[in-house]
Target: C4-dicarboxylate ABC transporter
Amino acid sequence: LFFIGCGSEKKEEKIIKENPIQLGEYILKFSHVVSPDTPKGKAAEFFEKRVEELTKGRIDVQVYPSSQLYKDNAVLKALKLDSVQMAAPSFSKFGKIVPQLALFDLPFLFKDINHLHRVQDGEVGQKLKDMVNEKGYIALDFWDNNFKQLSSSKRALIVPEDVAGQKFRIMSSKVLEEQFKVLDANPQVMPFSEVYSALQQGVIDGQENTISNIYTKKFHEVQRYLTITNHGYLGYLVVISEKFWNTLPKELQNAILQAMKESTIKEREYAEELNIKQYNLIKEYAKTSGKLEIINLTKEQKDFWRKTVSKIYPDFYDKSLIGEDLIKGVLATE
Ligand code: LMR
Model:
C-alpha cells in the first residue's frame, strides 16, 4: 500500500487537495503460491513498490503469496473473470490454456540458464506469449525460478532406476507425467500448497522442485535424500487480466510495463542469488541435522539421466501438445 502519511485528518485533507491524484483508484491483486522469500515472491514485492511509485499510488498493488488467494491453476480462471488482476503461474499450470508452454518442462532441453533466456527472449518465447494473448490474457514477461532437483524419502537417487516404483508429486503437466512414467515411477498431481504435508505423512515418496521452493517450504526436512540433477527448469509467465488492462489509461499501462521491465531484471538476479544462498542453507541443515543426504552426480551419471528421460521428446511433437517446430527451435537456438 502507498501511504500518504499517518498524520491527523486535517493533514490528510491538505495533501489530497494539493495533489488531486486519486490514491488507490485501481486495485491490482497479484496472487502467487510460493513464499515471499523466493525469486517470484521478492520480485512481486519489488513490482508492487515500483508500480506504486511510478503511478503515485493511483494503482494499489496487493501481493498475496503462499496460495493465500488462489491455488495453482485456479488463478488462471480467476484472472479471466478479473477476480484477480495478475499472476505468474509456472508453465505447467497453463496446461489447459496453452499446453505448448510445457516446452519449458521438457527435461534436459536447455543447455544452461543463458540458453534458456535466449529462447525466452527470442522467436520461440514470442510465439508462446502470442498464444497466451490469443486466449484473452495479457502476457508480460518470463520470470525465472531455476532448475529442479529430485528428492526422496525412500532411496538415494543416483541412477534413473532408483526412481522406479516411487510416488512423486508433480504439477499438472503431461510432460512431467511422462518424465516419471518413462522411469517407471508413479506421478501424482498435487497442488503446491499440499506437498509438505503429503511428504511428511508419506502419501508421496518424493518430489521435484527448485532449491528456493524446497528450502522455503521445508521439503528438505521431510525427505531423506536430495539429488542435484538440474534436470528440468521451473519458470513463470507473468500475466494480467485483459479486462483489467483495458480499463487502464495508457499512462498507467505504460507505468506497469516500465515496472515490469525493471522487475524482470531484478527477478533474474534474485533467482540466481537465492539458489546459491538457500542451497548453502540446505547443505548446512544436512550437515548439522544428519537427516538429509545430498547427492551430486558425476558427468557420466548425469548423461545417463539425460539419455533416459529425453526419450520422451518425440511424444510431444504433435502441435496440440507442444510441437516439433518448437522443440527443434530450442535445440537449434545457439
Ligand atoms: C510448483 O507447483 O511446484 C510451482 O509451480 C510453484 C511455483 O510457483 O514456483
In short: The longest strand covers residues 137-152.
